[in-house]
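Q: Hi! New to this. If I give you a protein sequence and the SMILES for magnesium ion, can you show me the bound structure?
A: Yes, paste them in.
Q: Okay, here:
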Amino acid sequence: MSDKDKSGMETYVVPDAPFRPGDTADFGGKWEEKPGDLNRPDPATCKTEDTVEHANGLIRVLNDDGTASGEWNPQLDANVLIKGLEMMMRLRIFDDRMIKMQRTGKLSFYMRSFGEEAVAIAQTMALDDHDWIFPSYRQPGAQFVRGRDMVSMICHCIGNTEDNIKGRQMPVHYSWKEGHFISISSPVGTQFSQAVGVAMASAYKGEDQATITWLGDGTSAQGDFHYGLNFASVFKPPVILNVVNNQWAISTHKNIATGGKNFAARGLSYDIPSLRVDGNDFLALYSVTKWARERARAGLGATYIEVYTYRAGAHSSSDDPSRYRPGDEFKCWPGGDPVERLKEHLIKIGAWSDEKDQELTEQIDSEVMAAYKKACEYGDLASGPFPPASTIFTEVYEEVPWHLQEQREELGK
Ligand SMILES: Cc1ncc(C[n+]2csc(CCOP(=O)(O)OP(=O)(O)O)c2C)c(N)n1
Ligand SMILES: [Mg+2]
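A: Thanks. Here is the predicted structure of the protein with magnesium ion bound:
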């Protein structure tokens, strides 16, 4: 964007958010793009040029009235959808409990997936169980899909004596070897190149193992994003590269990171089939990921996806969004609440009811409460116990280097 200054010279304008505190947020009502607008190309023959419209449009399956339609409808069994709904509800209730723990000093820091629950859950459900997951801190939901024990997740967030990574990471920066869930990196974006590298290794070894990775709109302005796309374009490994455009990078609006029409269209210039999907539509997310997985299985290489969503809550427990955006912005989001939308769909097809929903909410509530109490038995931030100091020196090197050995002896542990 450019403008002229008083002398008539071109000056640069820093892109800004459409709404700031005090403004009335207005995204223009429901999406203009409708399910059925876009075809589902054959994944086995699809070329980048066949996805130009998909990169510039929005793939949807759920209509505004809760029905499902169009070629992208994955035609899932109601039981699979109920499972997806249950996991999204579990994640939301889990997140709320963790925030309460943070506010009462039982853990130091937390990040919710509020408003984006469908992303990791629907996309991981569409994968094979042994596929690699290279997440950001906004995809802990993938662990629910792979069956991680909730007590273990809470112990990690606290960093207590049962933390599987012994306090070596920030809270929410999970690492879970058994679930093929790779450790989350605090410097954002590193996972893109790592995911592409692992996918290249799978292809080289001739294994049918795909890799999925996600980074945010803000993070896509970093070099890591382009390194990943470049290698994916050249070597065509079985990788699914997602940019989760949740409109915000802490307090910086996506407008300052886009640098083009949208995030999805960037993939076209790397000659990678590129899709833009409604990230609050569980069925559409599942469907595009299944499509990308089929391409990976057929040896056709990478798929690049912009997941169009909205970060409903604060960036983290350290953030106060009322300082930089209107408080009711999420309520105006045309994509709606992903949990409510799937629930509405299930009710519409006669597979769910408000009573069942209430029952399940109560069941998950007590499950989360029991897990929280159990985890606190192993220690919390306020009162310990903590992992012994000696663990600073263990499990990183197979053979401890002399200088670390010396430091350990100095500590007397
Ligand atoms: C390399 C690096 N720069 C800055 C930060 C600080 N930081 C953490 S998250 C974040 C915003 C990321 O926004 P986005 O990529 O849109 O992801 P979102 O939080 O919206 O999911 C920033 C700037 C960091 N962790 N690493
Ligand atoms: Mg973001």
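A: The first helix runs from residue 52 to 56. Let me know if you'd like me to explain how to read the tokens.
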